[in-house]
Amino acid sequence: MTARDTRERILDHAERLFAEQGFDRASLRSITDAAEVNLAAVNYHFGSKADLLGAVLERRIGPINAERIRLLDQAAEEAKPELPRLRTVLECFLRPAVEMLGDVDPTILMGLGRILHERGEEARGHFDRLFANVAERFLILARICPELAPEEIHARFHFMIGAMLHSTVQVGPAKARPRPVDPELRLAQLLAFVEADFIAPPAKRESKGIELQPEESSS
Amino acid sequence: MTARDTRERILDHAERLFAEQGFDRASLRSITDAAEVNLAAVNYHFGSKADLLGAVLERRIGPINAERIRLLDQAAEEAKPELPRLRTVLECFLRPAVEMLGDVDPTILMGLGRILHERGEEARGHFDRLFANVAERFLILARICPELAPEEIHARFHFMIGAMLHSTVQVGPAKARPRPVDPELRLAQLLAFVEADFIAPPAKRESKGIELQPEESSS
DNA sequence: GTCTATAGTAAGATAGAC
DNA sequence: GTCTATCTTACTATAGAC
C-alpha cells in the first residue's frame, strides 16, 4: 500500500465516521481500524485529530471554492466594463456546490455540515481559513449592492453560507426525506431564496427567509 | 443546601453546559464545579450522565407535553360530537411550546435542540420516551385527515417536530439573529407552515416546506 | 513510511467514611 | 445526602525500532 493510499484511506474513513458520529465520538482508533491503517499514521500524515478534520473539510470544500473563484473571475470578465448582475454572482457561489456535491452521499454532507455547527469556536477556525479567499473575492457584492453597508453585506454573506449549511441538517426519520432532486431545480430554488435575502432592504430583516419559522424548540 | 437545591443546581448547570458545549464536551466535572456540588452527586441523583441529559430534557419538555395533552382534551371536548379542526389540533401542539419556551434563553433552546440531532441514535431513546404520550394522543390527526395513510400521518407529525427542532439551529454570527419576536406572531407563522405541510396531498412532497432550500452542504 | 509500545491525560463511575 | 479518594477505561499523541 502506497503512502498516498494510506492518506486517502484515512481521509475517506475519517470523513465518513466524523459525519456519522461527530468529531468527538469518532475516535482515531475507529478511523484507523476502519481504514485498516496504523494508528500512528494519522499523526504522521496529518499531525493531529483537529488537523485531520481540517484536511477532510479541505478536500471537499477546497475544489468547490476554487471553482467559485474561477466562475466569478469569468463572470467579471464577461460583464466588463459593467459589474456582473447580483444573481450571476450568487450563482457563481452556489453552482459549484450544487454540482460538485450532487453525487456525494447526503448523509455525509449532512454530517459534515453539522460538524461545522457542532463545535462552534473550534470549527470556526477551519471555516474562516477555508472561506478566506472566497469571502474576499465575493466582496464584489459590496459594489453590486451599494445600498448595503459592508457589515450588512458580511452578515448576509454569512447568512447565505449558513442557510446552505443549515439546510443540510435534515430531520425526522430517514425515509421521510425525499432524495433525488434535479440539480438545476435545486440550484434555482436555492438561488431564489438567497437572492431574496440579498435584495431585501437594509435592517428590519425579522420575518424573512429562514426565519420564517421562528426560533422554537425542543418539543 | 437541601437535596432539592442540589438536584436543581445540577440540572440548571447541566442544561446550560450541554447546550453550550454539546453532550460529549460538557464533562460531569465541569457541571458539578459550576453547580458547586460534589461530583458524586450526579450519580447519586441521576444515575449516569445519559440519565442526567434525560432529566434535563424531561424538565423542559415534560410540562409542555402535559399542556399539549390538556389542550387537546379540551378541544376534543368542545368540538363534540364533531372532531376538532386540523388547525385547532396543530395549535394544541404548538402553542404550549411557543408560550412556555418564550422566556427561555434562545441559546439554551438552540443548544438543546441541537443535542437531539447531534447524537442520533442515543438521543432517539430520550426523544421517543418524552413524546410517547403526545404522539399517541395526537393520532387523532389520522381521523381528521382520513385521506392520509397512517404512515403518512406519522411522517408528517415527525416532520412537524423536526421542523421545530430544525428551526432552533440558528446559523451565522450571533448578532445576525434578530431576537425578540411576538409570540403570537411566531405561533401564527409556525402554524401556517405546519398546517400547509399537513394539508398537502399525499405522496410527492419533494419541493415543499422546509425542503424549499434543498439539501446542500459544507460550503 | 510504517509499526509497536507506551506515555500522559481526562473522563465516567463507584466504594465507603461521615 | 454528601464527600474524598480511587478504579477503570478510553483517548490523543509520541518515541523509537524497523
Q: What is the H-and-E element order of chain A?
A: HHHHHHHHHH
Work out the number of β strands of chain A: 0
Overall pLDDT of chain A, averaged? 83
Number of helices in the DSSP assignment of chain A: 10
| Beta-strand fraction estimate of chain A | under 5%
* pLDDT < 50 stretches of chain A: 169-177, 204-219
Termini gap of chain A: 50 Å
Q: What general form of chain A does the structure show? A: elongated
Indicate the structural class of chain A: mainly alpha
Largest interface: A-B, 62 and 62 residues
The rounded Rg of chain A comes to: 19 Å
- Sheet having the most strands of chain A: none
Percent of residues of chain A in helical segments? 55-70%
Q: What's the multimeric state?
A: homodimer
Task: Please specify the SSE layout and strand pairing.
The structure is a homodimer of 219-residue chains.
Chain A: H1 3-21, H2 28-35, H3 40-46, H4 49-79, H5 86-100, H6 106-118, H7 120-137, H8 140-144, H9 150-166, H10 183-199
Chain B binds a DNA duplex (18 and 18 nucleotides) through helix 3.
Explain this structure to me?
Two copies of one chain form a homodimer. The first copy, chain A, is built from ten helices and no strands. The first copy, chain A, has 219 residues and is mostly helical. At the A-B interface, helix 4, helix 5, helix 6, helix 9 and helix 10 of A face helix 4, helix 5, helix 6, helix 9 and helix 10 of B. Chain B binds a DNA duplex (18 and 18 nucleotides) through helix 3.
